[in-house]
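The freezer alarm interrupted the setup, so I double-checked each line after restarting. Inputs confirmed:
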Amino acid sequence: MALAGKAREDFEKKLKPYVGIGIGVEDVGRNPVNQAMIRQWCEAMGDELGVYTDAAAAAVSTHEGIVAPPTMLQAWILGGVAMAGGEDDPRDKQKELHRLFDEHGFTGVVATNTEQKYLRYLRPGDEVRAATQIESISEQKATGLGVGYFINTRTLFYDQDDAEVGSLTFRVLKFETEDRPSASEGEGSSAIPGKPQRIKPVLGHDNEWWWQCVEKGELAIQKCSSCGVLRHPPRPMCGECQSTDWEFIFSTGRGTINSYVVIHYPEVPGYTYPLVVAVVDLEEGTRFVSNVVDVDPAEVEIGMSVQASIEHVDDEMKLPVFRRA
Amino acid sequence: MPTTLKDQAAIVGIGETEYSKNSGRSELSLASEACAAAISDAGLTPADIDGMTTFTMDNSDEIEVARAVGVKDLTFFSRTPHGGGAAIGVMHQAAMAVATGSAKAVVVYRALNGRSGSRYSEGVSGGPTTSDLIHWSWYMPSGLMTPASWVAMYTQRYMHDYGCTGEDLAEVCLSQRDHAVKNPRAFFYEKPLTFEEHQSARPIVEPLRLYDCCQETDGGAACVVVSPEMARELPHAPAMIRAVAQGAAGDQESMTSFYRPSLSDLPEMDLVAKQCWAISGLGPDDVDAAVMYDAFSSNVLFQLESFGFCEKGRAKDFVRDGNLRLGGRLPSNTHGGQLSEAYLHGMNGVNEGVRLIRGTSSSQPDKNEHVLVTAGVGVPTSGMVLGQG
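Predicted 3D structure, all chains:
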C-alpha cells in the first residue's frame, strides 16, 4: 500500500531538506583523458572518426589534435567495477536519500532519462571532476511500475582549471515494488526476495473484511442481517430483501466437491502443478472455490467429502484449502 | 412480448484480414483493413457509414478506425462487454441502431493480436481495484485464472451428470477440423486431425485437452449492417437478421457462475434462445445450419441443448450421430470454428453465418434458409438467427 495521510506527510517532510543541496562528495576522474580509453570507446561504439583516434588526421583537422568524443563526458568520472560493490560513502547525500526511500518501501529504482550538454571538447591530459546537486523531488506519482517519486539531479563537469566543460541531468524513479511484503504480514514475513508468490486478491470495500477473517484463520460467510440469507461471494446488498445490513458466520469448512479441474497449463510462477481447484458445496449451503491438496489428482471426484483448513499457501498469503475428509 | 427487431436489419458486407499467429502490425491496422473490406464487399464507400460498434475488449477506438478507413460523421457508436459474449451483442447494437434510425449503415468489427500480443490463455492477474478484479480475486489465489480452467469446471460437472466423455468432445473437434481442412482462411487448412491425436494430446485443464481449446489468433473481422430497404439496392443477397438478443441470467458471473443450483446448465444461453425463437417466430426445426461459439469444444454441447436441437443431456448423442457434419441434421461451424479456423472472438463466426446464407461457405450445406449464430459461453452472451432476404 502506498504511503498516505499522515505517514506520507511525515515522509515528504523528510525529503524536503535534500532538495537543492550538493550530494557532499565529488566524483574525480581516476585517470586523465587518454588515448587508450578513447580508442576502446570508439571501437565499442563503432565510431571511426579520425579526429578521435588518428593523430595525423586529427592534426590537420580544425581541432589540431586528438579530441575525445563528447559523449564520453560521464565515462571519465565513473567509479568502474568498484562502484557496483563496496560500501556507500557515508557523506554521500544521494545514497542517503535513496536509503530513506528504501526504508519507506520505495525499494525499486529505475533511471528514466538523462540529458547531456557539452561546452568544449576534452583532450588527452584533461583532468575531469564532477559535482552533483539534487535539483528536485517530484510529488508522489502513480506509474506503470508502481507508486513512487522522481528524483532529478544535475551534474556539472569541470577541468583542471575549474572551468565548466559540460553538464548532465539525470532522472530516476524510486518506486514501491510488488515484492514488498504485504502490510498484514508486517515485519515477521519470511518472504525470500524474488521468490514467486501466488497472485493476491485485490482488496476493496466489499471483500477486504473476508480476507481479514482468513488472516485470523476463519472461513467466513456473509449473512443478511435482515432476512438471514447466506451469500458468497460477498456483496454490498442482499439480493433477496435489498438490505444493506449484514453480518457474518464462520463456516465449519465441511463440504462436498461439486466440480473440480486439474490444471496443467499454463504454469504460473508461484503455483505447483498439476493444480487441483474445486467448487465445494459447504454444509452451510453456500459454495467456495479453492484448492484440494494432499491428494492424487486422479483420486479427486465429484461428491468427495472435504474439510477446509486455513493455511499459508506461499510465504505471503493464507487461503482456505480443502483436504479429503 | 418479443422485441420488434425481426427483419429490421440485414448484414450486407463481410470482410476480414488474413488470420495468423504473428500479424507483424497493429491491431488498428487489422481493424481498419477488415472494416474497409466489409464496406467494399457491401458495395458501399466509407462515407456511407455512420455507425460503428465493437467489443469493450477491443483496443482500437471507433474514431481511430473511422479516421483510418475514411469514415466521416458517426451518429452511433457503442461497445459491448464480456469478451466473446459480445460477439452477437454487437450485432444487436447494430440492428437496434439501424431499426431506430440512429444510423443508416453500421460497421461491426473486432481485431486483435491474440497470439503475438496479449494472450487470453495467460489468464487474469492483478491491477487496480475494480469490481471486475474483485471478482477475479475469488479465483486468482487458488490459481483458477484462465478461460480453459473456468470452462473445464462446468464441463467436468456436465460430463459427470450426463455420462459424456472425452470421445464425445472429440467428435466436435473432428467435425470442425474436417470443415477447416477445406477452408483456405483456416489455420488448419489441409491439416486433418485424427481421433487418436485428439485423445492423446496433452491435457490443458482436465477434462479439456489441447484440441478442445481454441486457437489464439492475430486478425480482424468486420461486417456491415443496414436496413432491409437499403440492402435491396446493394450487390449481395442480404443476410436478414430474423432475431437477435442478449442474455445475462440470475446469479451471473463472467465465466465463473459457480453459485447457481446446477453447473450443468447455461441459463444465459437459454434466455438468448427463448428470445431468438420468440422474436423470429421460428424454432430449432427451422434452422438448417449453425455457427456455435466454440472457445472450447464442450461449449457446443451446452448450446445444442439451450437452443433445443436435442433434449438436455443428449447433446453427446446428437453429436456422435454425425449431426454437426455436412449431411447431418445441423451442419455446424462449417468454417472450422474457433477451434480450427481462427479465434476472432466470434466475429469470424458472424461472417461465416453470412456466407452460409449466401451459399458461399467452403463447406456449404444444401439447405440454408435459416442459420443460427451464437456468442460466448459462460459469460453474459448473445445470439441471432439469420435468414434469406
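Quick read of the result. Residues 5-15 of chain A form the longest helix (11 residues).
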